[in-house]
Amino acid sequence: MEIATNPTDTPFSIIMPKPIDHENSSDQIVQPDRETVGIPFVKHPRMSCRDVVVRYGDKQAINSISIDVGKNEALAMIGPSGCGKSTFLRCLNRMNDTIPSCRVEGSICLDGIDIYDPATDVVPLRARVGMVFQKPNPFPKSIYDNVAYGPQIHGLTSTKAELDTIVETSLSKAGLWDEVKDRLQEPGTGLSGGQQQRLCIARAIAVSPEVILMDEPCSALDPIATAKVEELIAELRTQYSIVIVTHAMQQAARVSQRTAYFHLGDLVEVGATDKVFTNPLHKLTEDYITGRFG
Amino acid sequence: MHHHYTFHLELNHLNKELLKLSAMVEDKVRKAAQVIETHDQKMIQSIITSDYEVDEMEIAIEEDCLKILALHQPVAGDLRFLIAVIKINNEMERIADIAVSIAMRVDNISKFNHQEAISYNFAPMTEKVLSMLNKSIDALVNRDSKLASTIFLDDDIVDKCRNRCYEDIKVRIKNDPNHPGYHINTYLLARHLERIGDRAVNIAEEVVYLVEGTITRFD
Predict the structure, then answer these.
(1) Non-local CB neighbours of A43 within 8 Å, separated by 6+ positions
(2) Architecture of domain A37-137+208-289
(3) I want to staple B204 with a disulfide (CB 3.0 to 4.6 A). Which of A43, A113, B151, B197 is the partner?
(4) How many H helices and E strands in chain B?
(5) Which residues pair with A45 in a beta bridge?
(6) CA of A171: how far to CAs of A39, A181, A195, B23, in Å?
(7) Burial classification of residue B112, based on how many CB atoms lie within 10 Å of its CB (0-12 exposed, 13-18 middle, 19 or more buried)
(8) Which residues of B touch A289 (CB under 8 A)?
(9) What pLDDT was estimated at residue A32?
(10) What is the pLDDT of residues A172-220, one digit of tens each?
(11) Cβ distance of A250 and B80 shorter than 8 Å
(12) Where do the domains of chain B lie?
């Protein structure tokens, strides 16, 4: 991933926090400045989101967020519960379409094409932007069928041999092949939690996505299974863009190249992960990651 | 990584311990500066024999830092604070060691049966070095990176004091060639004082890192 640093290439420069105007601030508690600071934009983005607003009925869950997802980067989204990070993640492959009261404004482009354009078909979109959920959710089918299902319905293969190859490649990329190659016909639900989650990742990979969204993918896993998934994220990043929502901040620190901090529906800060965890620009980020929030 | 109350209490405790150590070390340097003038045997011995207090405190602070790093994995300002404490803690211990070296050297000088030599006036240099140490500790206490950034100006003055002492001692050795040991020890006092100044600069650099997050070297 290439982070733009040339200040002349607006808006690709680092956005610094505005200085506090002490002279004009009153004694009243004022809403802290929550305009995005840091590096929300990258050169050659895979996805670019501009002025995204999300409403559930009358309630505004996301307040005008603009951010890019780079190619070959893992972007971590952190923030307290209810800050809008999962809502925003679900916008990236139109998962929010399934919620009738949900309205999404602004633009979200994948390779320059607006995914909210009425002409966009969500079925291939969700193959290109795959998703892995908090709880592993394999289909009640065999391990083989779990992975083969996507390529079959998207018509990616014409022969059984091709399908076999996709299943093997996907399971190998997900680091699961050696563990399941001798029992491909057994049910996917019979695997351990960590294996099930990697099966779900293999299922997402099988349809050749460009972006993989992960919503707290390790929260139901033990430390060993978590370590395996994290290693997998590091490998997958070389081929795909990954956006991961996590409550485990050390996980964000370990797996991502950029970290975005969400706060009450605002995107407060985005920056290089090492910078965010050593010297964040925004006080709200600092307060949250050091446990002084609230 | 969401820390509970005890984590912040531990950081506060660590801060207090470091300030206690700083006060202890500052006191030792002040006493070392005094014995250069007075050659007070009682004070010299007290500086030498009480060094263990600083050593013990330094080890306790380092152990606290390692424990907090392992148990709480601090980030951002908390991480910078811990890194700064580890480094400043080390600088403080070394400064106390230099105070002991000064005391031992003064002890040595005072035993020379050499009445003719005129004692070198260290007062302007010790005053500057003490003010540097004081400034670096003030900057640490108040998290004042601006104050910390002014310290390198003082360091230049201290370096000049040492150079002046060197030139002066060269002349003295030429004029009084029978007591080279006395004169060399006198010069080495200037060298010790200058090293305390350097370490005060290191502390100030850590304060800038702690406050601003940028690694600074005042060269």
Answers:
(1) A2, A3, A4, A9, A12
(2) 3-Layer(aba) Sandwich (3.40)
(3) B151
(4) 8, 0
(5) A70
(6) 35, 9, 10, 62
(7) middle
(8) 1, 75-76
(9) 55
(10) 999 999 999 999 999 999 999 999 999 999 999 999 999 999 999 998 8
(11) no
(12) 5-212
Angle of CA points A109, A112, A118, to nearest 5°: 55
3-class secondary-structure state, position A68: strand
Question: Minimal Cα–Cα distance from B40 to chain A, Å?
Answer: 48
Give residue B119's pLDDT band: very low, low, confident or very high (50, 70, 90). confident
Element (H, E) at A45: strand A45-56
Task: Give the closest of A276, A279, A291 to B1, CB-based.
Answer: A291
ipTM for the assembly: 0.75
DSSP per residue, A146-206:
HHHHHHHHTT--SSHHHHHHHHHHHHHHTT-HHHHTT-TTSBGGGS-HHHHHHHHHHHHHT
pLDDT attached to residue A293: 74
Q: State both tokens at A251.
A: 């996980």
Q: Which residue of A has its CA nearest to B4?
A: A291
Place of tokens 């952190």: A78
Asked if A18 and A35 touch (Cβ cutoff 8 Å), the reply is yes
Q: What is the DSSP string of A74-135?
A: EEEEE-STTSSHHHHHHHTTTGGGGSTTEEEEEEEEETTEETTSTT--HHHHHHHEEEE-SS
Contact B76 A249 (CB under 8 A): no
How many whole angstroms separate alpha carbon A173 and alpha carbon A231? Answer: 11
Structure tokens at B86: 């580890």
Assess whether pLDDT exceeds 60 at residue A11. Answer: no
Residue-wise pLDDT for A235-288, tens only, equals: 999 999 999 999 999 999 999 999 999 999 999 999 999 999 999 999 999 999
Q: Is A280–B76 a contact, with Cβ atoms under 8 angstroms apart?
A: yes
Distances in Å between the Cα of B137 and the Cα atoms of A6, B23, B130, B200, B204 are 39, 8, 11, 8, 8
Task: Give the phi and the psi of residue A190 in degrees, each rounded to 5.
Answer: -85, -10
DSSP per position, B105-127? HHHHHHHS---SSPPP--HHHHH
Q: How many CB pairs under 8 A join A and B?
A: 41
What proportion of chain B, given as a percentage, has pLDDT over 90?
80
What does the pLDDT read at residue A106?
A: 96
Measured between alpha carbons, how far is residue A151 from residues A88, A92, A239, B147 in Å?
A: 27, 21, 18, 65
Q: Where are the domains of chain A?
A: 37-137+208-289
Beta bridge partners of A272: A258
Query: What is the C-alpha separation between A126 and A211, in angstroms, rounded?
Result: 9
